[in-house]
C-alpha cells in the first residue's frame, strides 16, 4: 500500500534509505551520503504533503517524493514541456531486501498516475550518472534524458535529468 508518510515515521524512513545508501556503496555507486537524504529534507517533504511510503507487511519498504516545486538546479535544462504543470520525483528508494520485485515500478506508476489525475503534463526527475541500473529503469519506462545537473555536496559526477510526458 502506498500512502502519505507521517512525521512519526521519519526514523524508519531514514533507516530504509540508509540501507539503500550502504547497498549502493557496495556496488561503487556513491549517490547518497551520510547527510543525504536527511531528516530535515524528509520533514519538509512530509509538511508539504509530498512524501509517500510503500508499506509491505506493516513495514515501510519504499518511499518517493512527488513535488510540484522545481529546484533551481533544473532551470538551465531544456525540458520537453513548459515549466508550469510538472511534478518532480525525488528520493525514490526501495529497501535492498525488496529490490528487484517490482516495488520501484509500483512507486513510479503511483507517481505517474498522480500526475495524470492532477492534470500535470509531465514527470521530471534526475538520477545519478554512475547508477546505470536507475538509468535503464527510467528509460525503459519511457523517460527521455535531457541534460545534466550537479549537486557538489553529493558527488563530483553529474545527475542526468529525465522527463516523461503523461
Key terms:
single chain, alpha+beta, 4 helices, 166 residues, 7 strands, Aminopeptidase, globular
- Helix and strand composition category: alpha+beta
How many strands, what sense, and barrel or not for the largest sheet? Answer: 7 strands, mixed
Report the CATH superfamily.
Gcn5-related N-acetyltransferase (GNAT)
Average pLDDT, rounded to a whole number, is: 96
Distance between the termini: 23 Å
* CATH topology type: Aminopeptidase
Helix content: 25-40%
Q: Briefly, what CATH class?
A: Alpha Beta
What pattern of helices and strands is seen along the backbone?
A: EHHEEEHEHEE
Shape: globular
Query: How many domains, in number, for the residues?
Result: 1
Query: What fraction of residues sit in β-strands?
Result: 25-35%
The assigned CATH architecture is 3-Layer(aba) Sandwich
Radius of gyration: 15 Å
The total strand number stands at 7
Amino acid at each position: 500500500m502506498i500512502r502519505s508518510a507521517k512525521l512519526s515515521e521519519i526514523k524508519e524512513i531514514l533507516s530504509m534509505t540508509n540501507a539503500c545508501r550502504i547497498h549502493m556503496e557496495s556496488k561503487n555507486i556513491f549517490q547518497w551520503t551520510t547527510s543525504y537524504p536527511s531528516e530535515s529534507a524528509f520533514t519538509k517533504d512530509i509538511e508539504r504533503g509530498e512524501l509517500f511510503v510503500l508499506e509491505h507487511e506493516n513495514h515501510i519498504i519504499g518511499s518517493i517524493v512527488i513535488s510540484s516545486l522545481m529546484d533551481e538546479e533544473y532551470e538551465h535544462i531544456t525540458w520537453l514541456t513548459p515549466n508550469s504543470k510538472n511534478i518532480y520525483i525525488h528520493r525514490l528508494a526501495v529497501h535492498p531486501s525488496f529490490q528487484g520485485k517490482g516495488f520501484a515500478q509500483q512507486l513510479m506508476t503511483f507517481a505517474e498516475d498522480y500526475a495524470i489525475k492532477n492534470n500535470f503534463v509531465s514527470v521530471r526527475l534526475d538520477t545519478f550518472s554512475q547508477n546505470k541500473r536507475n538509468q535503464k529503469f527510467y528509460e525503459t519506462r519511457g523517460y527521455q534524458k535531457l541534460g545534466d545537473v550537479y549537486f557538489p555536496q553529493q558527488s563530483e559526477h553529474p545527475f542526468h535529468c529525465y522527463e516523461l510526458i503523461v
